[in-house]
Amino acid sequence: TIVPINSKKRQFSPVPLKATMLSVAFPGLGQVYNRKYWKIPLVYAGFGALAYSISFYTTHYNDMMKAYQDFTDKVPETASYTRFVRIDPAEYDPVLHPETYKPSTASWVEDGLLSAVDAYKKYRDLSYIGVAAWYLLSILDANVDASLFNFDIGKNLDLALSPACFPVAGNSLAGINLSLKCKF
Fold first, then answer.
1. Cβ atoms 95, 75 nearer than 8 A
2. What is the pTM of this model?
3. How far is CA 14 from CA 8, 30, 41, 62, in A?
4. Phi-psi region of 28 (alpha: psi -120 to 50; beta: other; left: phi over 0)
5. Cα(121)–Cα(129) distance, integer angstroms
6. Of 30, 83, 141, 175, which residue is most buried, by most CB within 10 angstroms?
7. 55-101 pLDDT, tens digit each
């Protein structure tokens, strides 16, 4: 029998472009290709948290928009805003209680409902932007991980900071300088 003298196991070396394209095609697939399986739950946890955020803010935005529309219309049957306003409707509702409402309180309630609509809309939109940013971050992670997969982090790497003296014409020591040496 012939035994090969130098039988080295072939080392895995991912291609960064392939990892990037796989991650673009399906989030987390670039991490699978790079054999970084522990990152997959993190990728999907981020997407899950952002999906929950979108759902939460969209639901509250729709509720507040409906409440604002119900408050500003003149239809007595639409009073969904009473769930969100904690004071007595007799103080602020010109439709249900035209003789007892206070215009300043009604204006305050309308402004509060409108600012809640704006806040929920802003955070819903930021959540959508977060999804795009998380998607791009997962793609970038797959690319960088593939690029640095076989990066040498052995003990032969050294970085030294030491003082250095450089001779200048007419003066042997012109000042104190720093020297940075890297050995690979």
1. yes
2. 0.74
3. 18, 10, 21, 46
4. left
5. 12
6. 30
7. 999 999 999 999 999 999 988 888 889 899 988 888 988 888 888 98
How far apart (Å, rounded) are the C-alpha atoms in residues 49 and 42? 10
Q: How far apart are CA 114 and CA 124, in angstroms?
A: 15
DSSP string, the chain: ----S--PPPPP---HHHHHHHHHHSTTHHHHHTT-GGGHHHHHHHHHHHHHHHHHHHHHHHHHHHHHHHHHS--TT--GGGGT--S-HHHH-TTT-TTT--HHHHHHHHHHHHHHHHHHHHHHHHHHHHHHHHHHHHHHHHHHHHHTTT---STT-EEEEEEE---BTTBS----EEEEEEE-
Rounded distance between C-alpha atoms, residue 122 and residue 128, angstroms: 10
Residue 151, pLDDT above cutoff 60: yes
The one-letter amino acid at 94 = P
Please say whether the beta carbons of 66 and 78 come within 8 A. no
